[in-house]
DNA sequence: TGACTCATGTCAGTATTCTGACATACCGTG
DNA sequence: CACGGTATGTCAGAATACTGACATGAGTCA
């Protein structure tokens, strides 16, 4: 079972568990978003846009942890479907500020409810203190990794 | 900055932070594995195989959080390159037990060193207590999500 | 035994994301 | 002002992962 030595202990590896938790969260989100005709990436983009209107393609990409090329094709699709709008010309530089349309806001609302239910389920067994701890610890990990 | 109401607070959302941490970890792993001609998925597969020899395609898929179809093409590649072996015929049922070859073990060793350095960096700012806490909390999240 | 359910390995096609590349616009320093 | 460095939007092609589908083998139950 626990043959020590060279490998990395999967059972006690924070990295492995991080991946597992992230994967479980993504799957759970997909499950609740699918009936709404929404995907995780699209939702992430819309939610980000709702909180910070006018974000550019590159900024959205960084906020959703994909490349700006991927975000670009996503935005083109969202634009075609009328969920977001971008001005035909950049007001300044090359940056195109993106905004939600009423349709996009509508779609996001339903998705947010679904996602919130998932997040609540995820946090069900945790006290407020533990949640705060988790926040602090995860932030520390991100900081260390990016350094 | 903090326009409350409909959305999910990104700054304080454990879900978002989980994704961010997982993404940062993956990027950091890719960075150290690339010089070795290794990818994260391949490493995960080999590491799993080192700890639990004889795992089947489907079991490896579950352990690395991909579909069994994806794992299958990965295994075929690893087999072609001589890093793993599978018997031509299933000893029992359809399950093909997979094993590392000496070449595979060799490749894994270097990768493990690299990955361990990343994991150590990630945990740099955390006490042992905090690491144990994180483990406990993440496990709770996974359990709640899968329920 | 036979029927049913479930899990597995695998093929094929699709979808998504990435890497590479290019032109362009800002911004600092000399 | 000129210029190198950096960031952006976008196109194209490659890599990767996924969904759908099928045949097969194991286990269960009547």
From TrEMBL, chains A, B:
Recorded coiled-coil stretches: none
InterPro entries (alphabetical): HTH_MarR-typ (IPR000835), MarR/SlyA-like (IPR039422), WH-like_DNA-bd_sf (IPR036388), WH_DNA-bd_sf (IPR036390)
Pfam families (UniProt xref): MarR_2
Source taxon at top rank: Bacteria
Occurrences of domain HTH marR-type (ranges): 11-143
Name of the protein: MarR family transcriptional regulator
Organism: Paractinoplanes pyxinae
């Amino acid at each position: 079972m626990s043959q020590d030595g060279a490998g990395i202990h999967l059972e006690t590896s924070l990295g492995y568990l991080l991946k597992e938790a992230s994967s479980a969260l993504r799957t759970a989100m997909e499950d609740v978003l699918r009936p709404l005709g929404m995907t995780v990436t699209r939702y992430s983009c819309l939610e980000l846009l709702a909180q910070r209107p006018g974000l550019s393609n590159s900024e959205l990409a960084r906020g959703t942890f994909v490349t700006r090329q991927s975000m670009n094709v996503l935005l083109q699709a969202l634009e075609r479907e009328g969920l977001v709008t971008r001005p035909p010309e950049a007001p300044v530089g090359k940056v195109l500020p993106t905004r939600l349309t009423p349709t996009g806001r509508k779609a996001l609302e339903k998705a947010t409810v679904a996602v919130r239910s998932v997040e609540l389920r995820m946090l069900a067994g945790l006290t407020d203190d533990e949640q705060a701890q988790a926040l602090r610890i995860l932030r520390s990990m991100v900081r260390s990794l990016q350094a």
